[in-house]
Amino acid sequence: MMVSFFDQFASPLYLGIPLIAIAITLPWVLYPTPSSRWINNRLITVQGWLINRFTNQLMLPLNMGGHKWALLLVSLMIFLITINMLGLLPYTFTPTTQLSLNMGFAVPLWLATVIIGMRNQPTVALGHLLPEGTPIPLIPVLIIIETISLFIRPLALGVRLTANLTAGHLLIQLIATAVFVLLPMMPTVAILTATVLFLLTLLEVAVAMIQAYVFVLLLSLYLQKNV
Hints:
Elements (H helix, E strand, L loop, with lengths): L1 H5 L6 E2 L2 E2 L1 H11 L11 H18 L10 H17 L12 H22 L1 H6 L11 H44 L4 H40 L1
Helix pairs in contact: 2-4, 3-4, 4-8, 5-7, 5-8, 7-8
GO cellular component, one term: mitochondrial inner membrane
Catalytic activity: H(+)(in) = H(+)(out)
Protein name: ATP synthase subunit a
């Protein structure tokens, strides 16, 4: 039974071909194309308003040098939100439940922020490894601890996104299985369980959006320290 629960996180294959590429490419087809007209339809208007709000929120703590990342960070957030939301549909696959994919997003972007900091302001970037006013005997220990925490950041980004989505999908499947099992024996309990399942699904919709936002927000905070 537990094997079947975790089968939903296995990358699907068709004729030996992994379909994760299609799952990653499909969201780009669903986005409406921006129009050059002054008056747009409601969908494009709402899309533009949300993108502007997200961009202002992300770029607020950054200086002008960090604003060059606006397109990349906002595009990544919209992409992650779309993948997470589509993964909540029945009989679909969520690519962001794969740690390898999330690490593929986290490691290059984190490394880019570190490289930018070392290139533009190496003294300040290295100064983050040693807080000001540190006692001399603690200097070697603190440098080691700060270096480890620096290299753990991309791992924390990828694991956080993977763990939250995986846990939510497992809970939904477990409670849905309980509803089907209880329905012929205890209909009242099954209805109450189905209500919990509905509320949990709403919570997972919120988690799908919040986790994508947190992923990009943490990247912008890492960028803020290096720009």
